């Protein structure tokens, strides 16, 4: 007999919640149960526009949703500055937590959230969707193949998009009181996560922000870059920006092979994604081409990556709720290490681009 679907409550009606609402509907082991906003009218409008069932509960306050004993898990897409308050309260109310990124303004805040989740025995996962695409697992197989990829040497990643005037003036991601990390916390989160993923989540020894950080008039980062160094000689770089054309490039270079893809955060198409590999590359005799040529690999999926994320999170919640299992610890570990690197980049920028050691 199949387990009952996990009942989700959505706390806040941010734009990204529209996408995750759809994902909860598409996921086979979850259901849209409730939504809350600061007014009943806004929550009701959101539910109507995003396919909530007629039976869904509509709440005019976040507290009311968290007090509902039928809610198993909450998706929390609130501004980062509000995470520590509402994530902690959700955990204290025994609600499992799917938390938007960045998970906090700094690792100290996130540790408070983690402590609340651990004390209540609830699962926490951040909403980094691309981690759940089947392409990601296939690429990891290549990186772990020592004969084809070899040892990791360097990673380079870039995530940018050209925000319009309205975004740059009004979006929460450019407001110091709401999302003070700006582009570093938003698109930089993905760059950092991808680098750590390629390095099997081994933290770098140190981080140096690169000159050229761009701020808005409120002091929020709109674009920045950084270099990461490990003790064994591995290196990585990333660039993130709200001011450049949409780009989602990643290259992972090993002693024997190279992995490349150009849509690492959101695939070009919802039902399939590709990546390229090159193994023991060289030149033709007259140096007029490559031999062997890089190859392309296509991975298909019936469900979009955000639905697969919800499905995996719901599976873990179900294991805790119905089987008495302990929460899976790898997901909060991934979140914490990503936040640690972001913190170090921010400190490096503030210290005039000095090198900053990372202490776990």
Automatic annotation (TrEMBL):
This is Uncharacterized protein. Residues 6-125 form the Gfo/Idh/MocA-like oxidoreductase N-terminal domain. GO terms for molecular function: nucleotide binding. It holds the Pfam family GFO_IDH_MocA_C3. The lineage of its organism: Eukaryota, Viridiplantae, Streptophyta, Embryophyta, Tracheophyta. Belongs to the Gfo/Idh/MocA family. InterPro entries: Gfo/Idh/MocA-like_OxRdtase_N (IPR000683), GFO_IDH_MocA-like_dom (IPR055170), NAD(P)-bd_dom_sf (IPR036291). Residues 143-260 form the GFO/IDH/MocA-like oxidoreductase domain.
């Amino acid at each position: 007999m199949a387990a009952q679907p996990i009942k989700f409550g959505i706390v806040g009606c941010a734009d990204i919640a529209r996408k995750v609402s759809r994902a909860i509907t598409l996921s086979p082991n979850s259901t849209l149960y409730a939504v809350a906003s600061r007014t009943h009218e806004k929550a009701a409008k959101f539910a109507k526009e995003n396919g909530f069932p007629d039976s869904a509960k509509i709440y005019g306050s976040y507290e009311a949703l968290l007090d509902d004993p039928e809610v198993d898990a909450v998706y929390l897409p609130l501004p980062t500055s509000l995470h520590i308050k509402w994530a902690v309260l959700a955990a204290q109310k025994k609600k499992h937590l799917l938390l938007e990124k960045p998970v906090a303004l700094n690792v100290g805040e996130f540790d408070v959230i983690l402590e609340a989740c651990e004390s209540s025995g609830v699962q926490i996962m951040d909403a980094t969707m691309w981690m759940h695409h089947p392409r990601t697992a296939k690429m990891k197989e290549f990186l772990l193949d020592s004969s084809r990829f070899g040892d990791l040497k360097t990673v380079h990643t870039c995530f940018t998009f050209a925000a319009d005037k309205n975004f740059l003036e009004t979006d929460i991601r450019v407001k110091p009181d709401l999302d003070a990390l700006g582009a570093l916390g938003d698109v930089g989160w993905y760059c950092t996560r991808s680098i750590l993923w390629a390095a099997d989540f081994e933290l770098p020894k140190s981080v140096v922000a690169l000159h050229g950080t761009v701020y808005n008039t409120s002091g929020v980062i709109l674009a920045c870059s950084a270099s990461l160094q490990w003790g064994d000689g591995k290196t990585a770089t990333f660039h993130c920006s709200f001011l450049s054309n949409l780009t989602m490039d990643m290259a992972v270079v090993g002693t024997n092979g190279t992995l490349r893809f150009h849509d690492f955060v959101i695939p070009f198409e919802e039902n399939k994604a590709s990546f390229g590999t090159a193994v023991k590359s060289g030149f033709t005799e007259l140096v007029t081409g490559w031999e062997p040529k890089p190859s392309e690999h296509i991975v298909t999926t019936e469900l979009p990556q955000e639905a697969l994320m919800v499905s995996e999170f719901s599976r873990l919640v179900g294991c805790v709720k119905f089987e008495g299992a302990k929460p899976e610890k790898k997901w909060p570990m991934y979140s914490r290490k990503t936040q640690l690197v972001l913190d170090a980049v921010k400190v490096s920028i503030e210290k005039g681009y000095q090198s900053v050691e990372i202490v776990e």
